[in-house]
Amino acid sequence: MGIFSCTSYVIGNIIGSGIFITPTSIVAEVNSVGLSLVVWAACGLISLLGSIVYIELGTSIIEPGCDFAYVCFVKWHAVAFSFMWVGVIITFPASVAVQAQTFGQYVVEGLAPLFQLDEPYAEITRKALGILLLVGIVWLNFYSLNEFAAKFQIIATVAKLGSMALIIVAGFYLLIFKGQTSNLENGFKNSNYGVGHIVLGLYAGLW
């Protein structure tokens, strides 16, 4: 696939679409900007520790299959088989479905100033766009993994990193040059410190 395709594939797996979905979920659970930033920092630390573990596993167990290979390495073949079946039937399809639904929602909301749709047409459009995205991705992977899918992955990764950079730069611009610090002056006001809410916030951040 080449160095750029492989790198973009790894980046795409590490930085998923959840980065654009979870901020709303975290704020909804903890109910404050300050505590949501703390939850984000905790999620980042946990993710860093997890990635270090996977680096150790990947360099020690040089077998294809990732989690499946690692579990098989310790002779837990039944657990590995069950893990892969759950992933194929539930985990991976559910994750892709959420991403497709989010794509449709963002497109409809982004075009709302130009094309205002009322319910149920807006919901139908969101689902139709998500289905079209899934069909397109499946076609790309079936048609040619090296020629089209790899290039699409590079474009998608660049777009994802560019969007994140734009959001970060815009945030610092508003904070430093425009002095919009109202969200940080009372950042922990009305925070919800309930264990359940914090756990759900962490779960959303780690998705």
From TrEMBL:
<keyword id="KW-0472">Membrane</keyword>
<feature type="transmembrane region" description="Helical">
    <location>
        <begin position="124"/>
        <end position="142"/>
    </location>
</feature>
<feature type="transmembrane region" description="Helical">
    <location>
        <begin position="154"/>
        <end position="176"/>
    </location>
</feature>
<dbReference type="InterPro" id="IPR002293">
    <property type="entry name" value="AA/rel_permease1"/>
</dbReference>
<feature type="transmembrane region" description="Helical">
    <location>
        <begin position="37"/>
        <end position="57"/>
    </location>
</feature>
<keyword id="KW-0812">Transmembrane</keyword>
<dbReference type="InterPro" id="IPR050598">
    <property type="entry name" value="AminoAcid_Transporter"/>
</dbReference>
<dbReference type="GO" id="GO:0016020">
    <property type="term" value="C:membrane"/>
</dbReference>
<feature type="transmembrane region" description="Helical">
    <location>
        <begin position="78"/>
        <end position="104"/>
    </location>
</feature>
<protein>
    <submittedName>
        <fullName>Cystine/glutamate transporter</fullName>
    </submittedName>
</protein>
<dbReference type="Pfam" id="PF13520">
    <property type="entry name" value="AA_permease_2"/>
</dbReference>
<keyword id="KW-1133">Transmembrane helix</keyword>
<dbReference type="GO" id="GO:0015179">
    <property type="term" value="F:L-amino acid transmembrane transporter activity"/>
</dbReference>
